[in-house]
Specification:
By secondary structure, this protein is of the alpha+beta class. The strands form 5 sheets. Strands 14, 15, 16, 17, 18, 19, 20 and 21 form an 8-stranded antiparallel beta sheet that branches. A 5-stranded antiparallel beta sheet has the order 7-8-12-10-11. α1 packs antiparallel against α3 and α14 packs antiparallel against α18. The longest helix is centred in the last third of the chain and has 20 residues. The radius of gyration is 23 Å and the shape is globular. 50% of the residues are buried.
Length: 539
Amino acid sequence: MQQDGLLVELPGTDDLHAKLTAIVGAENIRTDDASRRLHSEDIWTPVGPVVALIVAPATVQELAAAVATARAAGYAIAPRGAGMSYTGGYVPVADRTVSLDMSRMNRVVRINREDMTVTVEAGVTWKDLNEALAPHGLRTPFWGPMSGLSSTIGGGISQLNAMFGAGHYGTSSESVVALTVVASDGSIIRTGARGPGGETPFYRHFGPDLTGIFCGDCGTLGIKAEITLRLITMPAVEDHASFSFPSGEAMLEAMAEIARQGLAAETCAFDPGLTVVRMKRASLTADVKTLSAVVAKEKNFGKGILAAAKIAMGGRNFIAPTDYPLHVICEGRSKAAVDHDMAATRKIAAQFGGAEIENSIAKVIRAMPFPALNSMVGPTGEAWVPVHGVCSLSTAPQAFADIQALYAEHKAEMDAHEIHTGFLFTTMSSNAIVVEPVFFWPQGWRPVHESAVEPAHLARLQQRPQNEAATALVTSLRKAVVAIFERYGSGHFQIGRTYPYRESRDALSRNLLDGIKAIMDPDGVINPGVLGFPVKGNA
């Protein structure tokens, strides 16, 4: 708790500290003010209540014991992966909260090529998983978000992810085979068909899908300890193309048709607002790491040098500042198959008014899939926050148009407060498009940004003071955008405490959810308030 701006110890914390020390060791518990504050905010939500302490278990058994001990002591429990949430998904609602730091549970437990599965602990990052699988010529179908440098797989299954592989295989949870999940009393549930002895999960859909219950739950139905994912053989061939469209609606129509035909492994598109932001960031031509990655990605060194040279000469100025660029990656077992998909993609782009442009950004996206997280702040140090909807292919263009109309209605206010916007779009399998509006406004960064952004990058930017008026307008606009998505029946990742979930379900669905919560977490101590569950007791 806080008194006169200072953190003071909660009653009973000493006893809890001693019990947790016996489980994980003193060096794996943190009580310093800076760490506690860091674990009490996310990208959007500043510090309010401050967690009492942070515990970092290293095994399933330590995790189960720590969770049971915190609950028995009357503390809420907030599981935290890399801290990339922008929806209040792990921030405490009361000081009497234990933050679970999952970073020590970072082992790739088993790569099983015979059964084409991989089992990892929840704290493994997407980058580390891909590096572990690469020597075997293997990959998970969905293989990570752009934040995969630090984003964890446990967090990705709890919050759900978009991006790499999603055009063919959907979100992160659709690659999951089985889960090991800890309930609030320390009990353990293991889902899926698990092979001889129960330790080699290989098939998800054995009876009712218990695995799915814990996917996208933001960690409030149980704490993920281990995740088993499907494997595929690494695609042998990939190709890249980029197109520029005169309007967002036309681009979204093209993306929808590309999705319907299952052509792209992933798509990534921007509006002119984000194009301007990208232009303000360091030029591709100045980034030796980027060009080196492009060279390394090509199997032929000469082709790699040629690709890097084209990027260096073209920079980013090949995109008209008023156009909407779409970047497409196709992959497959053979060049003929990929060529076929690329030809079909080009035909669709042309049908909707797209002109092919230099594919530099598409190449860079694949060559450097997990870049440094410097985009967590604006190009000159502004605050940044996204909001998003998972739209049907038919409703995405109109939802986008409605959001633009909202911005036009509030243009004078937004200009007065120097609020800038952008959009990111990507396809999800053959049936959805993610529409992600983002906001930039003149307000300073916080410790959560400092923990993720490269220090050298941050040092080049301007730190700004708090800007309550602009932040209040961004808050209002975010709520209005969420309401637009709600009108179209959109879905959401990373629901946290931002998007309506429990309250949007029919009565029987709510009863079912409440029954699961009552079994897994009867006292409501795991991430209270997330998914719309009521906050109980001391929480």
